């Protein structure tokens, strides 16, 4: 039985439209015009317990709105959803005991107090037994290496340290599902890595279902096994994160280092030069038009090669293509 | 290690656990307010200036009328009463904070927690306001003592005023929170509240005790929620009268019930209308 199931979930927002100028502002006071936007357009999917899902899409695609409906914050316009066998917007408080949320841009720690105060508050809010809470907290502190941070006022912590404490607080009640909305936003490489490793660890050791949205493809690649891509409120991809590469790669990037600076490249159909330097060349091969082996053979026939690297295009590029519906 | 404590309604400690969570919110709120004790103390300078102005105003009023008492109150008693009224003076801070939470979507971190949002806000407000009132009363008493000397202080009156003090803070909260909830429908409800708070200033006894108003205005204003807040606390401590006290307790309770019912309706409808866009 899926831990999250969504059927035709839809959310529309209605906005007042105002034209520029004083006259139009005055007009809109008496005869207002409204515009309706479908933020989420009849999406359906289901997630099994213990899965790690990357829920991605460009700005305004409907990611956060979906998360907010699944956590009971927003009421949908139409459709159904069950999270941990509960309808989120009907049983919001009951569901709160079973899920954890981290909104990267909306902190839940008390800013002027040390994080330990918020941890203790959450223990009471989630009606935890104090012995269980203390054991759990010690374990989380160890996992997230936050022992030295929890007694410092939150305002004095770095963004990365704060985010680690945010995740600790959201896991304090051992949720079955954790919704992470851009948890690595604004973090440096090391902080990101630390957070990714620990979330992965929580998923492995506790079987917590991870529902992650991020603009950072690294988060998706390193953390999730399945990716759902949403654009303009509709799901445009739902499959294995790994298969994103296989299904959508129609080109290869080849970097070549030559022994001779006067190297020559014959014109080949489907090959585009990306960068050229004294000894180096970077080309993109459209694999639907040219065969990588043949391209390399033709270049090697005319030049002496020092080194070759063949790479897939970055995942960002693949996702951007999917966003633009250019499969 | 994954042990989830599942709250059960059959649990005999369930109600106690619910009480405990709001108590903890109250405690963290006053700790957070104490974290900026210097800020709270700096407000007392503003407070001291207001008391000085009132004192000058009432020196002029009593001398121009050439009377010892007005409505049975000496000048020193009026100033003491105003001190208590001013101690409960509310800033627009709570209202603006809630409006911002609703508009920015920060409310989302409260809505997906296992507590009732209005009760969370009340507990937080009691924590903040309790500390501020306490500081105000302590400093206000010192300043007023130096300005006008003491008054016929009775410890019984102070003890009897405690339920009124709690009622005053709760009544202030339910009024402010009602206006904050209007933000679910309109862009900025603080403008409407500003008009309301001016009425509160005039009819609530912040400048002039409503008991000194003429005829019908006095009778009407004493029934309104404005005069049944901090004014009745001041009146109870400075010039206790049993009839007034009982009437104030009943009226406070009625107004709290009225605004609480309004909150219940507005919150239930408003939360369905919530619009949060973006992360």
Task: Give your account of this protein's structure.
- Chain A is α/β, with parallel strands linked by helices and 327 residues long.
- Chain A has 2 domains: 4-246, 3-Layer(aba) Sandwich (Rossmann fold); 250-311, 2-Layer Sandwich (Alpha-Beta Plaits), CATH 3.30.70.
- Helices cover 35% and strands 29% of the residues of chain A.
- Chain A contains 11 helices and 13 strands.
- In chain B, helix 3 packs antiparallel against helix 6 (117-148) and helix 4 (93-104) runs parallel beside helix 7.
- Chain B has 279 residues and is mostly helical.
- Helix content of chain B is 71%, strand content 1%.
- The longest helix of chain B is centred in the middle third of the chain and has 32 residues, at 117-148.
- Chain B is globular, with a radius of gyration of 21 Å.
- In chain B, strands 1-2 form a two-stranded antiparallel sheet.
- Chain B has helices spanning 14-34, 37-65, 75-87, 93-104, 108-111, 117-148, 155-181, 190-203, 215-221, 230-238, 242-270, and strands at 69-70, 73-74.
- Chain B has one domain (19-272).
- In chain B, strand 1 (69-70) and strand 2 (73-74) form a beta hairpin.
- Chain B starts with 13 loop residues before the first helix and ends in a 9-residue tail after the last helix.
- At the A-B interface, helix 2, helix 3, strand 5, helix 4 and helix 5 of A face helix 1 and helix 5 of B.
Question: How would you describe this structure in keywords?
Answer:
heterodimer, A: 327 residues, alpha/beta, Rossmann fold, Alpha-Beta Plaits, six-stranded mixed beta sheet, four-stranded antiparallel beta sheet, B: 279 residues, mainly alpha, two-stranded antiparallel ribbon, 71% helix, globular, disordered N terminus
Q: Can I get a quick summary?
A:
The complex is a heterodimer of chains A (327) and B (279). Chain A has 327 residues and is α/β, with parallel strands linked by helices.
